[in-house]
Specification:
Elements (H helix, E strand, L loop, with lengths): L6 E5 L5 H10 L5 E5 L11 H17 L4 E4 L2 H14 L5 E2 L5 H7 L4 E5 L2 H4 L2 H10 L4 E5 L4 H6 L6 H16 L4 E4 L8 H14 L11 E3 L2 H14 L12 E5 L3 H12 L4 E8 L2 E4 L4
Parallel strand pairs: 1-2, 1-3, 2-9, 3-4, 5-6, 5-7, 7-8, 9-10
Antiparallel strand pairs: 10-11
The structure holds D-glutamic acid (DGL).
D-glutamic acid binds next to helix 3.
Length: 289
């Protein structure tokens, strides 16, 4: 029965685990299969064509694992490939992501919003459309956070290097007076605590500034993605009716041992991690070789 099938979730790397943890908490009975395309991470500066080819290969892989729905837990892949994926596998329900510009525009008190995302997301027509629809009345300050995803992939959540990069990214936004910050890449929630700490540091350094930003609200869209996943499952009558806790299986196109350690650190639990191997544009479970 399709409702017992797993939900597929993918990202270029560990970022989508920040979405998986909310889906697991919100829909604990669902079985989840996660794929991290770590041999190709980061996606952020790759071409649209390349991201479409990778995303379609991953979606076909998940389809062959018999998933009932796919969550594209990656803003960059959603921006480049969501429409293409829906055309490529028309029977599959997809849930995509976009930077939370709409809630940020509704919640900001002073009309100044910072957005952290990747270059690919900022340059996409989907992002341009978001800005036109929801950001007309607010001032948006953007940063493509170059180098941040690789640091997070290395497990550098709060090292001097990561703090220095975040300082460079956040100082101009705080000087401009933002009161709301959108995490428009699924990797960034894993440095949210460091972001809060760096904001406090910058504020203490610039305490005399008349445009000082205090109490910046940070928006992680993952809870909204979990709610949307529930709505789509309900729409297609695909909710898992069982009452026991679902399984979680992880795949990586990179190093399985490394993802096992990292996922344990990030989500505080043990996972089974397997390898999937790219053969041209097709992804094959290593166990099938
Ligand atoms: N986690 C991703 C996102 O939400 C992609 C990061 C990357 O691979 O550059 O955009």
């Amino acid at each position: 029965m399709a409702s017992l099938s797993p939900i597929g979730i993918f990202d270029s790397g560990v970022g989508g685990l920040s979405v998986l943890r909310h889906i697991q908490a919100y829909l604990p009975q669902e079985n989840l299969i996660y794929l991290a395309d770590q041999v190709h991470v980061p996606y952020g500066r790759r071409s649209r064509n390349e991201i479409q080819a990778f995303s379609a290969g991953v979606a076909r892989f998940l389809d062959r694992q018999d998933v009932k729905l796919i969550v594209v837990a990656c803003n960059t892949a959603s921006a480049a490939a969501l429409t293409y994926l829906r055309e490529t596998i028309p029977d599959m329900p997809f849930v995509g992501m976009e930077p939370a510009v709409k809630p940020a525009a509704q919640q900001t008190r002073n009309g100044k919003v910072g957005v952290l995302a990747t270059e690919g997301t900022f340059e996409s027509p989907r992002y341009a459309s978001l800005m036109t629809r929801f950001a007309q009345d607010v001032k948006v300050f953007e940063d493509p956070c170059i180098g941040l995803v690789p640091l997070i992939e290395e497990g550098q959540f709060d090292t001097p290097q990561t703090r220095a990069l975040l300082h460079t990214i956040l100082a101009p936004m705080l000087a401009a007076g933002i009161d709301t910050l959108v995490l428009g890449c699924t990797h960034y929630p894993f440095v949210a605590t460091t972001i809060t700490s760096v904001i406090a540091e910058i504020n203490s350094e610039t305490a005399a500034s008349p445009r000082l930003s205090t109490g910046v609200m940070i928006i992680d869209p993952a809870p909204a993605v979990a709610r949307q996943t529930l709505r789509v499952l309900e729409k297609y009558n695909l909710l898992n009716p069982t009452s026991h806790t679902g399984s979680i299986n992880l795949f990586t196109t990179g190093d399985a041992v490394q993802l096992q350690t990292m996922s344990q650190t990030l989500l505080q639990r043990d996972f089974v991690v397997a390898t999937a191997v790219w053969q041209q544009n097709n992804l094959i479970p290593f166990s099938d070789f």
